[in-house]
Write a structure and sequence with these properties.
It is globular, with a radius of gyration of 14 Å. It has three helices and seven strands. It has a single domain, classed as START domain (Alpha-D-Glucose-1,6-Bisphosphate, Chain A, domain 4). With 147 residues, the chain is of the alpha+beta class.
Length: 147
């Protein structure tokens, strides 16, 4: 198994960062404007990207003081069964976000692209909680061939 790992520090209270990751409304502000679902353990969040498809995420854990964890139950085959987790740590005026997308079966080319896209979306999350405006799809940073 192979994992994607990223870390970013944001100048915002942990509560604000948690809400941006734990709720469909928050996710729509930094990942994709077409996000729906419920913010509850056992519930699902659907994140769509127009004609490019999207992801269905089962919410495994929600802890406002510590982390959010999802399991991918719908989307590209390479994502099915992988888990995405967000750990938060308040350090003074910064909230440190440790991001993991774990359980990839092998480091295929699509994983490299997803790692780069995750980095751009983490910067979008940072912009959202620091300035009130992120860069969710369809206004996200394009990295290659329309993605």
């Amino acid at each position: 198994m192979v994992d994607i790992l990223h870390q970013v520090g944001v100048v915002a209270p942990l509560d604000d960062v948690y809400r941006a990751v734990a709720t469909p409304e928050g996710i729509a502000g930094w990942w994709s404007t077409d996000t729906t679902g419920k913010s509850e353990v056992g519930g699902q969040v659907a994140v769509r990207f127009g004609d490019s498809g999207g992801f269905d995420l089962e919410i495994l854990e929600l802890d406002p003081a510590d982390w959010v964890r999802w399991r991918v139950v719908g989307g590209p085959q390479e994502w099915i069964g992988t888990e995405i987790s967000w750990r938060f740590d308040q350090r003074g005026e910064y909230t440190i976000v440790n991001f993991t997308h774990e359980g990839w079966r092998e480091p295929v080319e699509f994983m490299y692209e997803c790692s780069t896209k995750w980095a751009t979306f983490l910067m979008s999350l940072k912009e959202l909680v620091e300035t009130g405006r992120g860069r969710p799809a369809p206004d996200d940073v394009q990295i290659s061939d329309g993605h």
